[in-house]
Amino acid sequence: MTLHVDRIDLATAAETGVNPYLAGPYAPTHDELTLANLEVVGEIPADLNGVYVRNGPNPQHEPRGRYHWFDGDGMVHSVHIADGQATYRNRWVRTDGFDREREAGAPLWQGIIESPRDNPPGEPEKDTANTDVLFHNEKLLALWYRAGKPYALDPVTLETLGAEDFDGTLRCEVSAHAKADERTGELMFFDYGVRRPHMRYGVVSPEGVVRHFVGVDLPGPRLPHDMAITERHSILMDLPLYNDPEAARHGRFKLFFDRDMPSRFGVIPRFGRSCEIRWFEAAPCFIYHSVNAWEEGDEVVLDVCRVKKPEPRDDLAGPLASVLSYLRLDAHMHRYRFNLRTGKTTEQTIDDDNSEFPSINNRVLGRPSRFAYNMHISPESTLLFDGLMKYDVSTGAAETHWFGEGRWGSEAPFAPRPGATAEDDGYIVSYVYEEREGRTDVEVLDARDVTAGPLCRIKLPVRVPIGFHATWVPGERLPEAQAN
Ligand SMILES: [Fe+2]
Question: pLDDT tens across 241-266, in order?
Fold first, then answer.
């Protein structure tokens, strides 16, 4: 039976206990595959060479207790494109927790909705490395949204090379959404947690050594998800969404959004000391993802996808209510300007349409940019993406490629054309789940004209479960022996 649980009303799912995040397009896959010479409809552009890779949750065992979508073990899915041919691979990230559960033949941890009481002593959560993936210093790094060990992976074989400690220099954890500056080769990162100072920030050198590391004093434990960089600064977030202190005292997790607390953005010079952080206040909100940031005169400009309703839903009942109440995405493009001279913040909506999982041309990360490529959130389900929007952030205008009936996209990185100078001279690459056939395509779009539809479709004979973040590794940046 094909169960399109994504279309089930959340209230029904909550009451019946059918967990939609273990079925249909979200159902975990069990085989690790290498599939070469994939069928292509149309033609892969001759100058598109590299690796498209996406991370996501994929539990290796039947979960114990109520499963939250964020709980699954990290699995990366890649399509390596070289000389007009495409090869698909998927591999679990071999985290410590994954290896121990594999040896045990069963889960040792329960997910975040359940009490951590029965989890391994001193390890309330399993570090799954399931959230983000980026490329730095010839390796992929798989990162976890709760801040954990960065796991290094081979960018072509996807083999786990091990937990990355940057030559023994890493003194903290690393959250999802560290930022690699392609021009300098530096990697800016943060972590966060319940212990003071509640956040830490650092810079890894192009050679892979932590060169800078400072504490960031927050008023209490927070749940930041992303950061941003400019050429000279990094921007850290202190947002009024946190674990309810009463629930935390009982070792439980319950999100609380404090409408009386401002959002705060900490602007720190890239190699700045803790005392050099400048905090800027703005209206309360939550932000999963930044789009880009840059400097304009005295101002730091920050574009984000700003969440409209951060509170969990309170209208669901039943065994899965707490799982489902958080799983909602509704965000819009929003711009902040932080004036370093006056200390003032201004903010404005760029566009009020629902979109998230933004990508940009990584070559302009931290520099003034004009284009963002966002997933349009389907009105049918807040976790399914029905179109790829190309935003002109200078005007808020968007052009949209709609994936079509029963086709759902995934975060779509920008693949620059070799030698390109224009910001949008390149391709957009996305997994698109084909619901009727229960499998996945890779669509390749011309970033200069997304409404023209795909230049080609690479047909996977398998389904890539709906997941989280993706990146593109250009062929010329792959270690030489692996470029083809
Ligand atoms: Fe994220």
Answer: 888 888 777 777 778 889 899 999 99
Distance CA 383, CA 75 (A): 19
Alpha-carbon gap, residue 120 to 124, rounded angstroms: 7
Q: What helix, strand, coil percent values describe the chain, rounded to 5?
A: 10, 40, 50
Burial 165-177 (b: 16+ CB within 10 A, else e): ebeeebebbbbbb
- What global pTM score does this model have? 0.94
DSSP string across 303-355: EEEEES--SPP-S--STTHHHHTT----EEEEEEEEETTT--EEEEEEE-S-E
Q: Does 413 sit behind a cis peptide bond, omega within 30 degrees of 0 on the bond before it?
A: no
Give 288 Cα–ligand 1 centroid separation in angstroms: 6
Residues 6 or more apart whose Cβ sits within 8 Å of residue 380: 6, 7, 386
348: CA distance to ligand 1 center in Å?
A: 22
Mean pLDDT value of segment 332-344: 98
**Centre of ligand 1 from the C-alpha of residue 76, in Å:** 15
